[in-house]
Design goal:
This protein is of the alpha+beta class and 381 residues long. The chain folds into 3 domains: 72 residues, DnaJ domain (Helix Hairpins), CATH 1.10.287.110; 89 residues, Roll (SH3 type barrels), CATH 2.30.30; 114 residues, Immunoglobulin-like. It has 8 helices and 20 strands. The strands form 5 sheets. Strands 11, 13, 14, 16, 17, 18 and 20 form a 7-stranded antiparallel β-sheet that branches. A hairpin with a 5-residue loop joins strand 13 and strand 14. Helix 2 packs antiparallel against helix 3. The longest helix has 23 residues. 28% of the residues are buried.
Length: 381
């Protein structure tokens, strides 16, 4: 049955499921929020949940917030998410005729006398059995039955000399990765002879794996790594995601405190020249000067709207690169969330670069080119 709309122009349609994966809810914003609102919401959440925050840091919560931001901060991915929301069916309303009428529970004083008599008899019988049990001599204890080892029951200390499986390279088959939990993630081996499992090694945090099947009895997942290692892992130590998501989560977890405006993140070589850099954007920016050999001569962090004067630079030609995003990761030399990287089209003498404005306002020269995140993160091409 349709309802009349509040504006009086026609029937009111059922509300649309506009946040099927809960991405907007994770950031605490409405689906109509502007990009600026989404970025500000992520920053607020990051200051609370980032693992480096002693009081409130929560790695898993931060990764969930970052996952939502990675989708909603990208215009194309957000548009696709919103389209999927519009296409998602809403549950049909329950018809009034199908709702059972409310019934009034019976009162104690309405119970029949025969029922009360039965309850009294059971109470007397229970009292007699209790007296008999207390006066009976205790029966000898049965010996404990040895059980086969299962990882779901307090596993023994794993063999620390067993080989550690390193984080895997991209294979296109990963479905999950290992979550950090403060202690080593054990890779269990099946011991068919004793019908149990034995420690066979360890997996590094954020190792990407392919999950094959679940072993519900022991709470294990059978996995295979990119280098062919196989075994079983505690299901609670895995979360869904491919190699790219595993890498980004690693970068997030190991981001460290944010640099100050003008901080030099890395430097190779020295000289007597200097360069002024202006960040004209609303997001943190990292600028790199890459020389003709592909080596990064200097990498500088700039806050939104920040300016930095970089000195002691070799006088040479450089092709600048810059990236914007949220949460700079010292471990990965890139932003852990919402990263977008670009590179100048040509090499330019340092003497003609200063001042260097990013994003640049190109008029007579070629605009910068988009580059993969991995290309920006490399120190040497």
């Amino acid at each position: 049955m349709c309802h009349k709309a509040a504006n009086g122009f026609g029937p009111m349609m059922r509300p649309m499921n506009d946040d099927p994966a809960g991405f907007y809810a994770r950031l605490g914003v409405e689906p109509s929020a502007t990009p600026e609102t989404i970025t500000a919401a992520f920053r607020r959440k990051a200051r609370v949940f980032h693992p480096d925050v002693a009081a409130t840091g929560n790695a898993e919560a931060f990764m969930r917030v970052k996952e939502a931001y990675d989708v909603l901060d990208d215009a194309e991915r957000r548009a696709a998410y919103d389209r999927s929301a519009r296409a998602a069916p809403m549950p049909e309303p329950i018809a009034a005729s199908t709702v059972p009428p409310a019934t009034r529970p019976p009162r104690l004083y309405n119970l029949p006398v025969a029922l009360w008599a039965g309850v009294g008899g059971l109470f007397c019988l229970a009292s007699i059995m209790t007296v008999v049990t207390l006066t009976r001599a205790p029966s000898p204890q049965r010996p404990a039955v040895a059980r086969a080892f299962a990882p779901s029951v307090a596993p023994a200390e794993p063999d620390r000399t067993a080989p550690m499986q390193a984080a895997t390279s991209s294979t296109g088959t990963a479905t999950h990765y290992v979550l950090p939990a403060g202690d080593a993630t054990v890779l269990w081996r099946r011991d068919a002879e004793h019908d149990g499992y034995v420690p066979g090694g360890h997996l590094a945090d954020f190792t990407a794996v392919q999950a094959l099947r679940l072993v519900p009895r022991h709470g294990l997942v059978e996995i295979v790594t990119a280098d062919g290692a196989s075994g079983f892992v505690d299901a609670a130590r895995l979360t869904s995601g491919d190699e790219f998501e595993a890498h980004r989560s690693y970068c997030t977890y190991n981001a460290g405190p944010p640099p100050e405006n003008g901080a030099v993140i890395e430097r190779h070589g020295s000289g007597e020249s200097q360069l002024r850099i202006d960040n004209r954007g609303s997001q943190p920016t990292v600028v790199k000067l890459r020389d003709a050999t592909g080596l990064v001569a200097v990498s500088v962090f700039l806050a939104p709207g920040g300016t930095a004067m970089v000195s002691d630079l070799p006088d040479a030609s450089y092709r600048p690169e810059f990236a914007v995003g949220e949460l700079w990761s010292r471990a990965c030399h890139g932003f852990a969330a919402g990263m977008r990287a670009e590179r100048f089209a040509d090499f330019v003498p340092l003497s003609t670069l200063s001042p260097l404005a990013v994003p640049p306002a190109f008029t007579a020269v070629a605009p910068p080119q988009d580059i993969p995140d991995a290309a920006f993160e490399r120190e040497q091409e």
